[in-house]
Structures are given as structure tokens and as C-alpha cells.
Amino acid sequence: MNEKLPVATVPGGNITSNFRGLRGGFLLMLLSGVVGSFSSAEGKTFIGKEISDSNSPIPFHITAKEVIGVVTDESGEPLPGVSILEKGTTNGTVTDLDGKFSINVASNESILVFSFIGMASQDVPVGSQSTLKIEMASDTESLEEFVVIGYGSQKKREITSSVANVGEEDFVQGGMRSPMELIQGKVAGLNINRTQGSNPNGSTDIQLRGLTSIVGTTSPLIVIDGIPGGSLDLLQQDDIESFDVLKDGSAAAIYGTRGNAGVILITTKKGKSGRSQFDYSTYFQREYVDKKPDFLTADEYRGLIDQGLIDEVNDLGHSTDLYDMLLNKQNLSQYHNFAASGGGENSSYRASFYFNDAEGIAKENSRRQFGGRINFNQTGLNDRLTLAANMATNFNKANLLGGGTGDFEQAIQRNPTAPIFNEDGSFVETQAYNNYNPLSRYANRISERNQQTFSGDARLSLKIIDGLTASAFGAHVRDTYNDRYYQSMNDFANRPTSDYQGMGYASKYNYLRWTNTFESTLNYKRMFGTDHSLDVIGGYSYQYFTTETFNVNNNGFTTDGFLDWNLSAGSAINNTQLPRPGMDSFKEDNTLIALFARASYSFQEKYFAQATIRREGSSRFGANHKWGNFPAVSVGWELTKEEFLANSAAVNNLKVRLGYGVTGNQGIGNYNSLVTLSTGGVYPQEGIFYQTYGAARNPNPDLRWEKKREWNLGFDFLLFNNKLGGSLDLYNRETVDLLYNYTAQQPAFVRSTLLTNVGSINNKGVELYLTSTIIQNSDFSWRADLTANTQRNKVTSLSNDVFTISWIEDGGLPSPGNLGNAIRVEEGGIVGNFYGKRFAGFTEDGKWQFYKADGSIGGAGDMAQEDLTIIGNGVPKYMASLNNTFTYKNFDLTLFFRGKFGFDILNTKDLYFGNKRWLPNNLLESAVTTHAELDDDPQYSDYYLEKGNFVKLDNLTLGYNFKLRSEYVRNLRVYATGRNLLTITGYSGIDPELQDVGFNTGIDGRGFYPRTKSFSLGVKVGF
Questions:
Q1: Contact 372, 352 (CB under 8 A)
Q2: What does the alpha-carbon distance between residue 250 and residue 259 come to, in Å, rounded to a whole number?
Q3: CA torsion angle for 260, 261, 263, 264 (degrees, to 10)?
Q4: Which of 88, 307, 671, 693 is the most buried (most CB within 10 A)?
Q5: Residue 356 contacts residue 369 (beta carbons within 8 Å)
Q6: 161-186: per-residue pLDDT in tens?
Q7: What spatial distance separates the first Cα and last Cα of the chain, rounded to whole Å?
Q8: d(CA 609, CA 602)
């Protein structure tokens, strides 16, 4: 008896020309290629092994009953390619081009599972039936899901603003340094970038829809479980349920003064009533250098000596790779998270505990943290009273000594023939400009941070009557850290000939920031008949912020025995020949108070409208402008519920949204509207020296909010039997009353500058999100998700009739060379413009030549200010990401690509280290290859600008999900992840992904902290 794979009978007949027929035919042919060839033994094909005639051996699979039928959609049209599986078995088939099927099942107790792209799956008991007619409904479940929108939630169907939701199933895979990396590339218009790569102590830059301020906050407001300004340090990747990004003004206006740069709402996992569950997640991760700088080896350096470019006295007889010596090649990061959850009829809980030990690719560069999160919910009074409480804490210890940008710069420029150690084992030290031995510093210094972060909140909600709920919410967030620093007596900077006279130095820095939040709301929800739905919420918000700092330092320690734990032992307190000890303390605070309201209306779940108003006051602004109003309105129309689209075969759901909103920015320092005092000199009086004080800033009673006015037109759609879904948003935002420090006339002003509101910025952009399950059957599926956006940022004004400024400059280039600023933004100009000289070639002896404004050519000394011009731009015009998820039986594979396009990079690494004038320091290889013709001092021009376009294979994850029949283990998943595996770019530097938020964009700095690729192995198990 011949064995055959499961197949399906295809009856004769013509293939229809309608869309479903074409698509069904394609899927059917694709399925046939996967599961086997078509067969028609006497017109029938059975699942499993073929049943032979009576003279054949006993068949392997005996079926007890044949079931036939047809599958249609809601309009009655046949559906080809529907997957049909006998539940609990591998017995299955697919429908033919006419939607018909035939399957043999084991018994009347069998259950058939019908599934199809864009349709809701159905479980159908066979029972005594032999013929089935199945009508599959469109899968609109996603439209009924709730999205957090700030002070409440809404069904996706009802959303009228630009809101992006990313759930746990769509998070970026693998080990993350920051929780924000979970949605990197997942939200169109949201730019998330770690400018220091895998440095465990590096920060994360976040910017939504471009630049919105010059001196104010440019990052979105983070709200964690209802706490505005929640700490990301309190989040671990396995404790997060979802991210909801409020992108436009109509969505973010509910947060008023802090909504200019958008709002990111983070919801953590909560307990659920039912059987107690335990979940454990772990991974181990190793970092590897992705691309090493092409600096000269010792042999190549000696080759330059042979060529006469370097004096032979610079051959110090060794072969040293300091870059390699600074690497922590045995780095191993690990993560563990254990959670317990469950609950009864009236209460639920979830508690998690974690340990995260992150080691950087650099030596003396790590961050170890542990902590936990507890959530508790309880209802009473016949489910009318609910208490929800959360508590989270994080303890972390960071080694800050290594990983500085200067350390790897030393590795690039240090003479590769110079030794690191003397013969007696001591360190070789240098006193040349910008030269030091990093390994010596590692051996003789301590730089650590011990940090504790805590968050506690509780929400009490009372259902007063049906539809009317009152709630009160209180939260306390506390963040404190202690920095300790010590320089040993043996440190080269403390040598006997230095100011420290061979004695040690120690310092302490203490930081404390805490926030109290209280918010109360009254929420009314009601259906009027079957057509009208109303949701109204009003509330009061109060937040108080306090920051305290204290620092002290001393020197003159004649022993290293105390380190930094006995500051009074330093003799500098009494020895005036030593640098003076220092101490300082500081405290500041500010208050935010707001009243807000929002009303959402729906008619026949077809027409939607929402209006928001927030009136907010901040202590940061002037006496004449303490309060501001932030209104918003948005509408939505579901066109597919109209007759002209109701029966469309191609358009399953289409909603158009239009919104307008005003938000604010109060992200500036405290007391900027007031006169504050600062210390001056001292004056003697009767032998006593008294401290003097003077005005630290000019007062500005008219200091007020920056305001952003934003229009957003959006479309949400499901097409082709829900096979293709997504959204398209077009926005135009104008930020007015920009804050900047302008020159103040003296007199009448006491100080030379004044922070005041003058300018404006315009941002325009288009954002696209597409998702499609391209293939789906019982064994294999392929889902693709695309996000893409384009943006333009323009400074429309910088001056008025009182305060005038021609341009703003940024991106100062370091010494040597006094090269000035690389970036200039002029009134009416685009953000991120490089401003400088235009390269015109080299002279015969390798000297610079540049174009002057009149078209003539001159040397570096001939260039005047009017010869400079815009030479490039460092802000990406386009960003895109593509995520592919494949599943085959229990396996899953994720391929995630990201890219940025349409921008320039200033390669300052080449500017300094790709120039032979840097000799006898070491050089990049480009100094004697690409730039071999150059023989002149460094100059900043478009010669060093390169196209930064890139595409990265940012994440590849292969996982396997075990299907266990155990009363103890409910799920088990193992996976392997590689990150930053491949970069396709024309940029010659180490990594084209640089800081591209704010004004200082597109500059590849002189630091060489390695960019890495990482590999991790992980396990997730549920009990």
C-alpha cells in the first residue's frame, strides 16, 4: 500500500474570474504544493493513508464517517481554500474552488475547526450530521478590542484620533537594554534610538513626529499605569502588556501641557481570576563587535616609518592593540523574571520578581538590577466598589568607569608600537595632548552608581449608578541614587608632580527626585436606544515634583585604605597647598494643576465624535500666564456601513478620521520666570568675609507655554476579505511661542539674556502602517507588517519686533582646529542643515581648496563668513520597517528589518583620524588610502559628508513552542535571537544609525564605543 500525504479532491470545472476565485485558486495551488499532489482515486481522496480494497492489508487509518459540505461567506459566496481540521488530530483538508469539502472523521464526537484568512474561526461539532453548510463571518474582533487613550479606553472601532497600539505579541524579540526597544520600528513616526548602542548605561532617545521645541522637552510623555511621568527603570519586558501611542494633538490634548511631543501609555500585566499560574522567563545574551575601526596596526604604522612619514624614533618596539584590550570579550548578560498570578471571584493579583545583569562590550561597563512589581485588584459592594493597587521597585548598581567615548578614542590614536605596561608591571603613561592610558584609569579609579526607584499607586472606583463611576487615584514615585568616585594615590593624574601631590581624591553625589500625583475622575457611559452611545469623563489632576541634590569632594588622602568612605580624612581641609575641597546642595520643585473633560459620542457605530478640553496651570510660567487652555476635537466616519460600500468585495472596513488639537510644552527648568539669586564674590568687613549675592536671571512675568496646533487626517482600513489592514495618517502641526534665550537690552535688564516666547516650527508628515496575513493554513502562516513615514521640519520664525536672531547653531566640533559649529538653523530653514564650506579639491601639495560665494576658488585662509552655505542635512526624510513572522507547526521565525533614508552624515572620525596631520598618533587607514592626497590641517566641509541611507536586519528570532500534555506545565517556548545582524549601507563609518533627534543630528562623533551584534538564548515556561 502506497503512502500519501493529506490531499483534497478538486472537482472538474472552470475557474471563476471573480476575486475570490482567483485568490482561492492561488491559495489552493499553494496549499497543494505544501501538502502534496492532487489525487482522485475513484473520485475520492481520504486523509491519512489510502484505504485499499478488501484484498489489501489492514489500513493504517480507518475513518468511521464521511462528512461533506460547503463553506460560504456572509453573502453566500463560496470560499475556496478554507482550512478544515479535525480537532486534536492532524486529519484535515481544504475547500475546493466552489467552497466544497469532504472529510472522513473518527466519530460523531469529532469537532471540525474551520479557519480562513480574514474570517473568524469556527469549531463545529459533527454530531449525527453528514452534510454541513458553514457560513463564515468576517473577523472584526480586532475592531472590538479596547485601546487605552488616557483616563480611559475605547474600542478601536470608535477611535477618532491617531492612536497606535502595540501588544505583547508584536514586541521586538530578544534581550532589551530599554523597554522602549520593544516597539522600536513598530509605530510609524516614532523614532527610538540608542545612540551608544549596547552600552548598558546608555540612554534612549525618543522622538515622535519630528522636532517640536528648541529648549523644551522633545520626548513624548511616558504614562505608566496612569502615572504621568512614570519611570522606565521600573519596567521589565515580561511585565508589559501593551503600548498605546497618542500621536496627534486631538489624542494628546487630554494631557495638556506635556502633550506637545506626544504621549506613550504603557500598561503592565494584571492578574486574572481563575486558576493560579506561574510564569518564568529567562535569557542569556552575548555581545560581539559588529565592525571594528580600520586603524593602523603596528606593522602598518612601521610601514609609514619606512616611507618617511613618521620619524623612526616613534617605533617603540611593541605591537599593541589597545582597542582589543578594552573589550570585555567574555561578556555575558542574563535576565530572569518569575511571575505568579491568579485570583478568585472578587479579587486578582499578579506579582513578579526579576534579576537583570547586563554586561557591556567594554570593560568596567555594566549594570546589575533586581526588583519586583505587585498588582492587586478587588471588588466589593456587589461589584460596585473596586480597589486596584500597584507597587514596583528597582535596585540597580552601575559601573560607570568604562564605556566612555574617550577610552576607545585613545585606542584609535595611541601609537600601536607603544607598550601598555613597563617592564616592572606599572603602566606606561603619556602627557601629550588628549592622550592617556585607559587601562591605568581602570586600575586606579572607582566610578559607581547605586540607584533605587520606587513607585506605588492605588485607584478606588465606585459605580454610583449604572453608567456613572467615580474614581480617585494617588501615586508616589521616588528615584534616588548615590554616585561614588575615587582616584587612587597611584593614579597618573594624582602623581607627586601634580596639584594633588601624590595623594588621593574622592567625591560623593546624592540625587533624590520624587513626585506625588492625585487625580479624581467622574465617568458617565450610557446607550440611548440602540443607536446612540455617550461616554463623558471629567476630572481633576494635581502633581508635585521635587528634586534634591548634594555633593562633596575632598583630596589629600595619604592612604587608599578608606577609598571614598572617610572624606574627612583628606588633608586638603587644612592644607591650603592642595586643591580646595568642595560641597554643594540644591533643591527645586514645581506644581501642575489641571481640570479636564472629554466627551465621546457614537451614532449607529457609524459616526463618531470626540471633544476634549484641559485647563492647566504650572508654577514654571510667569505671573501673567500661569494657566493655559488645551482644546481638541475629532470626528470619524465608518464608510463601510454606508450602502455604497456595505457590499463591497474589496473593502471590508474603512473609516476616515479628522482631528484638531492644541497641546503644550512645559518641559523647561524651574523658576525661569522669576529673579533668583546666585553667589558672587566676598567682601571683608571688620576682618570677616561675607558672601555676596546677585540676580541669576532676568524675570519674565509673560513667560508662557509653547503651544502646538495640529491637524490630522487618518484612514483605517481592512481590505480583500480582511487580508490587508492598516492605517494612513497625514498631519500638519505648527508649534508657536517657541522658547529661546534671546539677547536682552542692558539696561533695563540686569542680565544679558532672557528666556521668552518668540519663534515657531512647522512639521508635516505622512505615516503608513500595513499588516497582512499572506499565507495561513493548518501548518504554515506568513504575516508581514510594514511601517513607514516621511517628515519635514521647518523653523518658520525666530524673531519678532522686539527679539531678533538670525540663526541657531549647534554641533560644535571638538579641538584641535577650532572648527566651530557644524549645524545651523535659519529662519525659514529646515531643521538639521549642515552649514559650512564647499570642497573644491586639493592643490598639488595637498592643501584645501573651497568654493567662495562668487564661484571662485580659495584656500582655507581665504574663506569668509559669506562663503559658507547649506551643504547637507542630517535628519532622515524617510523611515521604514518590515516585520515578517513565519510559523510552521510549532516553529516560528521572525525577520525584522529597519531602515532610514534621505540624510547625510558628518564623518568626524575621518575628519580627525583620517588625516596624516594627526601623526605621530595612530591613524585610520583612510588617512593613507582615501585621503592620501590630503596634507593640511583638519577643515570642516562637505568633503566629509556621506549619504547615511541604511537597511538593517535588526532582529532574527527562531522559536519553538512545545505542546505538552501535562497538568503542571501549560506552555514551554525556547528561542534564539540575533540582533543587528546585517547592515546594508554606503556609509564608510562604523554605524550609520546615529542621533537623529533634536537639532544636533547626523554627526558621527569622535567616540568609538563599539556597536555590537548580539545573540541570545531564551526560555519561557508557564506552570
A1: yes
A2: 10
A3: 180
A4: 671
A5: yes
A6: 999 999 888 898 888 888 999 999 99
A7: 44
A8: 7
